[in-house]
Amino acid sequence: MAGRFAPRPTRTTTRGGQVGVPATARAGIPRPSAAPARTRRWVPPGPLDLGLVLGPLRRGPGDPTFRATADGSVWRACRTPAGPGTLRVRAYGGEVLGEAWGPGAQWLLDGLPELLGAADDPEAFVPRHRVVAGARHRRPGLRLTRTGLVLESLIPSVLEQKVTTDEAYRAWRLLVRWFGEPAPGPAGAGERPMFVMPGARTWALIPSWEWHRAGVDDKRASTILRAVRVAARLEQGVGMPAAGARARLEVVPGVGPWTSAEVVQRSHGAADEVTVGDLHLPGIVGWALAGDRFADDETMLRLLEPYAGHRHRAARLILLSGVAPARRTPKMPRVDIGLL
């Protein structure tokens, strides 16, 4: 029994969406950056781990829209309803400093508390299994982010359909760099500039051969093109309950339950929306809660029933626990779309 629950070594990014953010060197909020920026200070209602809260927003270590730096900062480049913007977040001594640049700066600062989990209610969660209780105890700073943005989670989620994560991350990285724009403020300059993802119209105008160069097959590209044509309607889903937003997303051909769940977990901070149709998640949840490495979606949902209202949180804690069955099958092979 003890061997089954032995955690795996911690990686920079785990299945549960954790990014390594270095601890700050001293207490007390520092002065803002020299570059002109709008700022906001906010005191979170409890423990806050920036790497855990914002980690699910990073799409691979080379994501040009996301960066964690050695001074304990997390940077995000976003396309907001008010235009492109860059947000830098730092946590010191129980307080958070947000700095923002660009036309979307004020929108990003207004949404800073919800981005950092202010709308989440982790205290309402009651662990029912030892592995879940242990993961929660070790990570008290986990809160569920709410970005208030749909398209920025939808497009990379579509890119992740039916391919390896490395392939999806590469496609996202290349397309954002080729067709996005430099992030406002200091993040958009230097040797490794950050980028804001393209707007809906730009996505719609990407030529077919550029999708191919990025390794994106026609099916995924077509899904994205259909989605950006109704981008305004999809973005309105942030004002709806998560279930309604998922239903609206799934009207788009090519967007199914797996993709819609991945989106609302980020756009809405949806604590109860479980990812079904995943290649690995049912087996990991089944192994952690019942010793069943061959669990399917139906079994996973049954095992998560005691966490109704917080099933996504429970699944994420299981992923963060490191408890998983040993891999006995080859990794999904990479596919050259030119051969399809």
TrEMBL record:
Database matches in Gene3D superfamilies: Hypothetical protein, domain 2
Positions of region (Disordered): 1-41
Compositional bias of kind Low complexity: 7-22
Signal peptide bounds: none
Keyword check for Hydrolase: no
InterPro entries noted in UniProt: Alkylbase_DNA_Glycosylase/TA, DNA_glycosylase
Key word DNA damage present: yes
Source species, domain of life: Bacteria
Keywords from the UniProt entry: DNA damage, DNA repair
Listed PANTHER family: DNA GLYCOSYLASE (PTHR43003:SF6), DNA-3-METHYLADENINE GLYCOSYLASE (PTHR43003)
Record's protein name: DNA-3-methyladenine glycosylase 2 family protein
Organism encoding this protein: Streptomyces pyxinicus
